[in-house]
Amino acid sequence: MEEIQSQPSSVEPELVALDPDGVRPPHVMESAALDLSFGAKKILSDVSIGFERGTITALIGPTGSGKSTFLRTLNRMNDKVASFRHGGDVLLDGESIWSPQRDLLSLRRRVGMLFQRPNPFPMSIRDNVVAGVRAHGIAKGKEQLNVVAEERLRQVGLWDAVKDRLNDSPYRLSGGQQQLLCLARALAVGPDVLLLDEPTSALDPLSTEAVESMLRTMTPALSLIIVTHNLGQAHRIADQTMFFYDGRLVEYGPTQQIFENPQQPDTERYVKGLMG
Ligand SMILES: Nc1ncnc2c1ncn2[C@@H]1O[C@H](COP(=O)(O)OP(=O)(O)OP(=O)(O)O)[C@@H](O)[C@H]1O
Ligand SMILES: [Mg+2]
């Protein structure tokens, strides 16, 4: 458990020192006075938060509290919803995700996403892994693509299970294996941030454990932001936890503090299972 995080706006010298090239801000992403709404309906107000580079942040809160809306905003997934409006800003490495200089494809390459239900594409297992790599022109030619596919399938622990069926449809894999395949696909394009919206809620306990331990191995190379209803999961894997309720970010801090010594009565009620 990381002990050095505190308030969202704080800049910790230790984190700056960990930064290899010394120029990137310690927060990989930041939301600044962010307001989110759909039409006249306000979903979240004034969310200011910094996501520590190379750590796992869990987003928790009751159903309808805006967790998915917030998460999907971070790689502009809500932009295609006609009624969606935002105020404030979201920064990636200090630059607005809505800046005219940023193109959406490259944003999505740097900020990947894994959904609640595995969504393999209707193509072979191998082609699934390299779909993004191909689209972005990161690797070309059968040999290079095969290397990427093997590397990423090994990384998520799926290689042995699928190495003899790389040309088969992914839909015959188990749900857990399909989710690992989608994880391999998301990792293949080399994102800096991975957004995960309840990635294990459709999985059995064993597959959940496999995905959780996989996620832990991904930091500090990657920064993970994960929505979960599974409070045990947040407690087990997250360095920081954010609690959303009643249209706002109620509390943010080191996971241990949020679960064991929350500062706000609503947070305490929620983490103790006493809320609705
Ligand atoms: N595309 C949309 N158009 C209009 N309203 C929406 C849209 N998406 C979400 N909402 C509304 O925004 C609010 C927050 O929804 P959101 O899905 O972000 O909550 P959540 O915290 O992820 O909930 P859950 O835990 O159930 O997944 C809800 O009232 C929901 O109805
Ligand atoms: Mg949700």
Task: Quickly list its features.
276 residues; alpha/beta; Rossmann fold; 6-stranded mixed beta sheet; 4-stranded antiparallel beta sheet; 11 helices; 10 strands; 35% helix; disordered N terminus; binds adenosine-5'-triphosphate; binds magnesium ion
Write the SSE topology:
Blueprint: H1 13-18, E1 27-38, E2 41-52, E3 56-60, H2 67-73, E4 84-92, E5 95-96, H3 104-110, E6 111-114, H4 125-135, H5 141-155, H6 159-162, H7 175-188, E7 193-197, H8 205-217, E8 223-227, H9 231-237, E9 240-245, E10 248-254, H10 255-260, H11 265-271
Parallel strand pairs: 3-8, 3-9, 6-7, 7-8
Antiparallel strand pairs: 1-2, 1-4, 4-5, 9-10
Helix pairs in contact: 4-5, 4-7, 5-7, 7-8
Bound molecules: adenosine-5'-triphosphate (ATP) and magnesium ion.
Magnesium ion binds near residues 67, 68 and 227.
In short:
This protein is α/β, with parallel strands linked by helices and 276 residues long. It is built from eleven helices and ten strands. It has one domain: P-loop containing nucleotide triphosphate hydrolases (Rossmann fold).
What can you see in these coordinates?
With 276 residues, this protein is an alpha/beta fold. The protein has one domain: P-loop containing nucleotide triphosphate hydrolases (Rossmann fold, 3-Layer(aba) Sandwich). It has eleven helices and ten strands. The protein has a six-stranded mixed beta sheet, sandwiched between helices. 42% of the residues are buried. Adenosine-5'-triphosphate binds at residues 38, 43, 61, 63-69, 81, 83.
